[in-house]
Amino acid sequence: MNPKVDKDLCISCGLCTEICPDVFELGPDDKATVKDNANLDAECIKEAADSCPTEAIAVD
Ligand code: SF4
Predict the structure, then answer these.
(1) Ligand 1 within 6 A of CB of 19
(2) Which atom of ligand 1 is nearest to the CA of 14?
(3) Domains by residue range for the chain, with CATH
């Protein structure tokens, strides 16, 4: 799984970082980013993507 965050869509709600703290974090610009060497837990990423209010998380 290769999650990506569209920063133009992210509203910095922090939900993905709560659902999946090993993968997502809020960066210096307060937008969600995928952590380096993130522990890519597919279930968790899917839940975060489904929960994002602006559908900013894409998974391929
Ligand atoms: S859940 Fe979506 S809008 Fe909220 S911080 Fe994560 S990427 Fe941004």
Answers:
(1) no
(2) 5
(3) 3-59 (3.30.70.20)
